[in-house]
Write a structure and sequence with these properties.
- It contains 15 helices and 20 strands.
- The protein is of the alpha+beta class.
- The chain has three domains: about 100 residues, Rossmann fold; about 70 residues, ATP-grasp fold, A domain (Dna Ligase, domain 1); about 240 residues, D-amino Acid Aminotransferase, Chain A, domain 1 (2-Layer Sandwich), CATH 3.30.470.
- It is globular and about 60 Å long.
- The chain binds ligand MV4.
- The site of ligand MV4 has 13 residues, from strand 7 and strand 8.
Length: about 450
Amino acid sequence: MKLFKKILVANRGEIAVRIIRACKELGIKSVAIYSDIDKDSMHTKLADESVCIGPASSAQSYNNIPGILTAAEITDSEAIHPGYGFLSENPHFAEACLTSGIAFIGPSAESIRLGGDKAKARQIMKRRGVPVVPGSDGPVLNEEVAMKIAKKIGFPVIIKASAGGGGRGMRIAKEEAELDKMFFMAQREALAAFSIGDLYVEKYIPEMRHIEVQIIADTKGDIIHLGERDCSIQRRHQKLIEESPSPFVTEKFRKKIGEYAVKAARALKYRNAGTVEFIVDNESNIYFMEINTRLQVEHPVTEFVSGIDIVKEQIRIAAGMQIELKQSKVRLSGHSIECRINAEDPERFIPSPGKITFLSLPGGPGVRVDTAAYNGCVIPSHYDSLIAKLIVHGRDRSEAIARMRRALDEFIVEGIKTTIPFQKKVINDPDFIKGDYNTGFVEKMNAPKQAPVT
Ligand code: MV4
């Protein structure tokens, strides 16, 4: 099998830069696409060629399927890497690439479609013996069916949009009296956000941990996992800090959750890189939540502990090459933590776009910064507010924490607000340091400390 000669990167920002770097190291030419306002951006400068794809609005640029396919054709690109966000989980785009004779660096259109239909994915997993949270089997047609299921599994329940993501179209019903109202609210929000009103019901697990497993699968059908990432530090469904390994996970638990992840991938005939997300409750029960059929923002923490370049693997697999590594040869070593640095007010988390008037990035041992930002660049308001990922690696968790604290102190951004002050607070929090946290952590951290009852 031969690698591609030229790849078009259908994305912008740090992830486009990340993919261009992998291309360079593999000896593959890269093509950037950019919108009007991204003319001077880093990904446009670093690629071997660049094509202006349209105006700032993502609908007319980074989400413009015919425009991107035309750019691939005129530049003779053999493959397209979609990155994350934008068209990365659009089955029509994956299909359109293949129809145009261009390799899509990712899973099949059918796997993407199943991953995006969360009620269906849940049903498939349940039938294949991957544990799911007690709840509905497939989509729930109306509030009466939802009530029947809720009474059977017991309240509280959570109603989720089948096309959901980012917490949209999700409602908790604490008791019978709330169910109808919450069902309609979730349905209305799902229809508005995704134009698909399908819902499903699950038992609500309070105090959950969000643990996900990185998998890679080749065309031959070999699938391996690269351990877990703990993504429980989130605010309003936006992840802020991720780490690998999870401070809660034992060797035995890792083997079990890893096997579930591989089984989930096998059930979808999955290929390329993917992530299987799980809910883990207080008693360490594992439940499948969803499968993300793309490269994820937080993939570098897994790269640090596994030594595997996930983007290069994606490219090799799309070119038809097999995974050389066997599961028994996967060695996870040390500890990695990532902070997502967003151009946002650190207290209210509202976007803070504008010009970066001064930027100085951290460095030194065990520090990686993935960013497209530079001194004097402008962060536009049109796209995601992620401006950099700060990833550290240490021999153990305590060295990784010390390194992250040091690197956050070195990170200087002037001209816009960033989430750095918030992440400094988390990294110094006694419960975080103990590894004692779940998805309720950020809310508890912001709540005024309760005086103990005497
Ligand atoms: C849940 C859950 C509890 N039980 N599912 C799904 C998407 C992710 N962003 C949050 N999700 C959750 N799914 C079951 N069965 C709790 C969450 C959850 C959450 C839900 C509502 C409001 C805030 C939340 C914060 C973290 C996790």
